[in-house]
Amino acid sequence: MLQRKEWSGDYGDVKQIGRTYSKDGIRWLSLSGSGIEFHCETELVEIAFVSDSSVHGQNGTDYARFAMYINEELVFCDTLKEKQKIVKIFESRIKQEIKVRILKISEAPHSMIGIEKIILHSDLPSKKTEDLAHKIEFIGDSITCGYGVDAENELVHFTTSTENVTKAYAYLTAKELNSDYSMVSYSGYGIVSGYTESDKKDTIQIVPKYYQSVARCFGTYKDMPLLENVPWDFSKYIPELIVINLGTNDNTYCKDKKERHEEYRDEYVKFLKVVREKNRDATILCTLGLMGANLYPMVEEAVTLYQKETKDDNIVTFRLTEQDKADGYGADWHPSKVTHQKAATQLTEKIKKIMGWQI
């Protein structure tokens, strides 16, 4: 048997997936789909995790959900309920060359998960996997997060245990396009207002406020700063394409009020300028419609106004087909697995056309 060796969770020779944050040897995953991936030659793989403050409360709906893969095969999926946990995900009598992927599949605000150690029975360290053919960033809300996609039906309410970004349209689209991805998505968030059941605007749950941060997460760990106060280094991931899918939650505030539609449009233009400032060369694709397209005309107007003002023509719009009740629903009437797959197929074809990508 080969000698047991340990590497810190923030070991550098791994591929970072999405936005991650490292402190004191721990790599923290917060945003949906964030994680790491590496190759190794080993007889055993164990991963040591630490949890954030979400495990100290009594609210079991907030635990971080995570998944692990060996050679593309899902081998572990659960929520982290313990303060510390070591998970064995691979064991063999002989040394094998394998690919390991670790993903957080629930969203950022509720909790984060820390990779404390990578443990191998190997005489060699892990090595990062290669980049895929393309790079996409997805900016969105609960739809992008895969909210409730693993729930039995629409009568089930939110819990991180039924959230799964790997079954959502964005992840599926990236997979179909052989593309790396980064997700910046938060359930209930919008451009001008977050989800509201009153007539009052929610100015806290808006994506533009946190886009330039690593993430927005309420979880804490010792003296680690809140991730919303940590600026994201945009040089770490340079996408060729950015997909923005925001407006479903804004619609709960805007309704059919013309002045609110225009407010959404104007704030959308402002956000486009920020996205472009941070991503000079990326094509921007603005989409809406999976859970309703009431604000889609404002998306089109926003893009037109932005283009007129900036002379930037590297931006397009695309309307997704609204979900069909015949395809079922996830928790709280969110898209089902079938709906997400249909949306991914639609979006994939659109991206192939505008980007000229041959898959």
From TrEMBL:
Pfam families: Lipase_GDSL. One of its GO terms (molecular function) is carboxylic ester hydrolase activity. Transmembrane segments: none annotated. It comes from the Bacteria. It comes from Lachnoclostridium phytofermentans. This is GDSL family lipase. The lineage of its organism: Bacteria, Bacillati, Bacillota, Clostridia, Lachnospirales.
